């Protein structure tokens, strides 16, 4: 895993050398293990922490002491771990997460490990990942075989996405994988059976499936809804400090125009904030708006949440410049 993640980080660095404003969507499976027997509670807990490791390293997030020991025991040196902490590129990333009915696992006894279906479903798992990484999210893979089952699954995932967006999680996309049926996807390409796995929006003769019709209907129904209803997708890192300052100056006009400056003054004077100016610094203003008004959060969208949550998680904050 360390080699794959490092290759990914170095590829991002190479792209950023020529496109410093680039955004990256990395796709990773979102999973949960349910310990159904008391003897397997510790194993389930370990698996539910280990599942984050690839993204922890990719985003330069410090892991727990238990996971650090796990990495060292499995061949990662201290210098290799430090590489990931030094190259923290999370402000350029959208968290892509895949979700299938097989992503939740039941540990029943010593010999029984079975797929649990959508016990928690996409909402709970995505909320867990978002609260850990505080990045915009995109559903990067989902599917289901069968005519009516596939259609129902698609609407179920879409309903989860709408609830997530309603609750403030910036989900910016959904992906049915794939456009056409796959070959041998039922064995994850481990066996050369030349067998069609009917999970596409279209079959291999380019005939649309019922789920394809449903997907087209979904697009037609939601085509006039903003990608992120609660605000624009804004990811700003050190490469765009000048633009950030310009937006801050513009935000002053916004506050005055809509009378939010009065709310800011009441908020600031009623807390331990010592500054006398009525317009807070960029980070303070954004975090205040996120807490006090879901509508006002549209000024800078999900970006307001990064700083506040980062501090709560106790992660290194100095490098983020949010």
From TrEMBL:
UniProtKB keywords: Oxidoreductase
Entry EC no(s): 1.1.1.133
UniProt GO MF annotations: dTDP-4-dehydrorhamnose reductase activity
Enzyme class: oxidoreductase
SUPFAM superfamilies named in the record: (Trans)glycosidases (SSF51445)
InterPro entries for the chain: GH
Name this protein carries in UniProt: dTDP-4-dehydrorhamnose reductase
């Amino acid at each position: 895993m360390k080699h794959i993640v490092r290759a990914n980080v170095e590829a991002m660095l190479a792209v950023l050398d020529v496109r410093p404003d680039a955004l990256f969507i990395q796709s990773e499976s979102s999973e949960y293990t349910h310990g159904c027997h008391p003897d397997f509670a510790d194993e389930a807990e370990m698996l539910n922490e280990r599942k984050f490791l690839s993204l922890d390293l990719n985003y330069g997030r410090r892991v727990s002491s238990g996971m650090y020991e796990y990495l060292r025991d499995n061949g990662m040196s201290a210098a290799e771990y430090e590489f990931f902490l030094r190259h923290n590129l999370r402000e350029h990333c959208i968290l892509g997460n895949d979700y299938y009915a097989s992503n939740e696992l039941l540990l029943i006894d010593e010999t029984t490990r079975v797929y649990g279906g959508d016990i928690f479903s996409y909402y709970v798992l995505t909320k867990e990942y978002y609260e850990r990484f505080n990045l915009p999210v995109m559903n990067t893979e989902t599917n289901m075989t069968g005519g009516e089952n596939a259609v129902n699954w698609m609407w179920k995932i879409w309903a989860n996405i709408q609830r997530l967006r309603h609750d403030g999680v910036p989900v910016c996309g959904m992906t049915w994988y794939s456009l056409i049926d796959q070959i041998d996807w039922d064995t994850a390409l481990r066996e050369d059976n030349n067998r069609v796995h009917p999970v596409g929006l279209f079959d291999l003769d380019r005939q649309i499936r019922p789920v394809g019709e449903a997907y087209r209907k979904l697009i037609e129904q939601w085509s006039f809804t903003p990608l992120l209803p609660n605000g624009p997708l804004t990811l700003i890192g050190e490469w765009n400090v000048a633009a950030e300052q310009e937006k801050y100056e513009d935000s002053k006009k916004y506050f005055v125009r809509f009378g939010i400056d009065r709310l800011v003054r009441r908020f600031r004077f009623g807390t331990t904030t010592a500054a006398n100016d009525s317009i807070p610094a960029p980070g303070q203003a954004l975090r205040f708006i996120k807490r006090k008004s879901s509508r006002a959060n549209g000024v800078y969208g999900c970006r307001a949440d990064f700083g506040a949550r980062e501090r709560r998680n106790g992660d290194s904050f100095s490098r983020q410049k949010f």
